[in-house]
């Protein structure tokens, strides 16, 4: 994916949240409180998963490298895209 395709796909923070949400749903979410692995649903107004068993909420960034970061998901995805698609060493780019 080129940077232009990336920017077209992830135009807004909400586009990035939807992408991460879909990835997390495919992978599966485990409740940190009760260890429930299957019964979660999406709470749209605050972008969190909620356990159907104990009602504990899990942040979209929880359990990822983005956890406890105040940086937006869009910035994270952009950085991950750059790092994973770069063809030259960072040393040559910075010079």
Quaternary structure state of the chains depicted: single chain
Shape: elongated
Supply the number of helical segments. 4
Number of strands: 3
Q: Supply the helix-strand structural class.
A: alpha+beta
Q: Total domains, how many?
A: 1
Low-confidence stretches: none
Q: Can you list the strand order of the major beta sheet? A: 1-2-3
Topology overview:
Elements: H1 3-9, H2 13-27, E1 40-43, E2 48-51, E3 57-59, H3 73-85, H4 90-94
Antiparallel strand pairs: 1-2, 2-3
Describe the protein.
With 95 residues, the protein is α+β, with helices and mostly antiparallel strands. It has a three-stranded antiparallel β-sheet with strand order 1-2-3, with no helix packed on it. Strand 2 and strand 3 (57-59) form a beta hairpin. The chain is elongated and about 45 Å long. The protein starts with a helix and ends with a helix. The chain has one domain. The chain has helices spanning 3-9, 13-27, 73-85, 90-94; strands at residues 40-43, 48-51, 57-59. The model has no long low-confidence stretch (mean pLDDT 84).
Throw out a few tags for this protein.
95 residues, alpha+beta, 3-stranded antiparallel sheet, 4 helices, 3 strands, 42% helix
Could you write a compact summary of the structure shown?
The chain has 95 residues and is of the alpha+beta class. It has helices spanning 3-9, 13-27, 73-85, 90-94, and strands spanning 40-43, 48-51, 57-59.
